[in-house]
Design a protein that fits this description.
The complex is a heterodimer of chains A (about 300) and B (about 260). With about 300 residues, chain A is an all-alpha fold. Chain A folds into two domains: about 170 residues, Alpha Horseshoe (Serine Threonine Protein Phosphatase 5, Tetratricopeptide repeat), CATH 1.25.40.10; about 90 residues, no CATH class. Chain A is about 60% helix and about 0% strand. Chain A is built from 13 helices and two strands. A two-stranded antiparallel ribbon of chain A has the order 1-2. Chain B has one domain. The relative contact order of chain B is 0.14. Classes of the chains: A mainly alpha (about 300), B mainly alpha (about 260).
Chain lengths: ~300, ~260
Amino acid sequence: MSATRRTNLVALAVLLLSVAGAMVTLHSVDQLRQGVVAQQALYVRSSNALRRMSLGYTGLLADIYWTRSVQYFGEQHHNGSGEYRLLAPLLEITTELDPKLLPAYEFGANFLAPKPPGGAGLPAEALALIKYGIEHNPNQWRLYYNLGFLYYTEFKDYAKAAETFKQGAALPVTNEFMPILAARMAQHAGEFETARMLWMTTYQNSTEGPIRQNAVEHLVALQVDEEVTHLEQVVEKYREQTGRLPSSVGDLERAGFIHGTPLDPKGHAYKLMADGRIEVQDPEKIYFITKGLPPGAAPPQPQAAKADSK
Amino acid sequence: MNSRIGYIAFNTFREAVRDRVLYNLIAFALLLSGAAILVGQISIDIERLVVVNLGLTAVSLFGVVIAIFIGIGLVSKEMDKRTLYTVLSRPVRRWEFVVGKFFGLTGTLVVNTFFMALGVFLALLYVTHRFERMDVWVLVALYFIVLQFLIVCALALFFSSFSTPLMSAVFTFALFVIGSLSEDLRGFARITHGVGGWIATAIAYGVPNFSALNVINQVAHGDAVAGRLILYNSLYALLYSAMAISGAVLAFQRRNLK
């Protein structure tokens, strides 16, 4: 082997070993400093300073900050830490850098508003974010929809929700459900129908897989809640007529209150409990349900998803 | 354009290609295709925005870096290699040499931008599956970026006509940064009074206005660009480049080449 060839081989070996070693070391450093990187980004909290530092390329910087917000939320959600103190400032910087970045308002508000573990439990911050969005994008019906949704789900403020849907319905480009939602909110009627309409609108107007999946899961949960409510009303009627609780779902069928065995959306029969309550067979498999659960059980939530709060 | 300027411009272009300047297109293609594929995985609902924002920002910054680093060497390299003396010993005037170099460099950047624009539109097609009417405004943003290159090339050439390559790079880059913040500077000038106000206004109007040439974020959202802005920006870029090239010619005419 010539001296040159030997030198080349040694150099190549050193190169490969160094690359591998550097990667392993970097991985160890990352493990050691987990979470630090996202926090460092917020050493600059002023969007004006960032705007100047970006030399006018604010669009790209806003995209980067939005991606950081999504990653931060996803990571905290995945860790189950329930600690989201950087989320609101990250979204604030994102939207100040690019006030027209609609996904940051729409999804950002839905990261912020729901209670943990689904979200950050910061509905006031979500409200401020969406209002800032409407201020800068007054013709976007989606933002009015999100604001109305927020008033309805987080604040139970039907009057403001109705007013917001009404404003959204009056825009030149809007959604067919907006005037109906405004009317329903004003009447404060048909809880299941209203909620179903909200989730249907979310499903139809999103192209993001996780968002649509989340809407489907909420629609399924609504169906279960409605069916359990209906079945418990039937049980109550049976008790009123016969003076006793039914011993099985078959009793209800034989008495002509229902036709066939009622099944939940997963295909399992509903269980009739001794005290007349109705429960689903596998509550862990149907997320977000509020009815049909064992006494004291919390509504089941899906684990770690990128954007499953809405 | 007279034929001597044409020859110098063509040779400048050929030299830039020989110097592997267009290799930046590989980095650009990797950056854009990577972003187009990855961003859907790590972010939400901004695929188109990222392709436009990242694509046009990269076109702009890559081009500015090329304009500065090639522009500053256009004169000094010819002097170091002593090829300048061969050129000027022929019936070529100094101003023709400077103008030819300017056209050669801007030509290189236009070709470079053309291929990058193709990349941007291909990436756009990949993420959106079809072109929309609003994508026309991306072309306007690309045109503004080319106007930006005209000014940067002219400035680099101006500084290199009387200064060292290192100092020319520093001056040109500094003017690029200040020019990118020129709208802030004019805002500052408006609220300053007295002598300070006059000085601030003079500086604000003296530095190149790159802010108005940056409509990347606007077109990323599909917003239209006013026809008058296109006209005024075109005029402004031509006039500012002409100003800098005239300055370069004046400086180069007086330069002692012995």
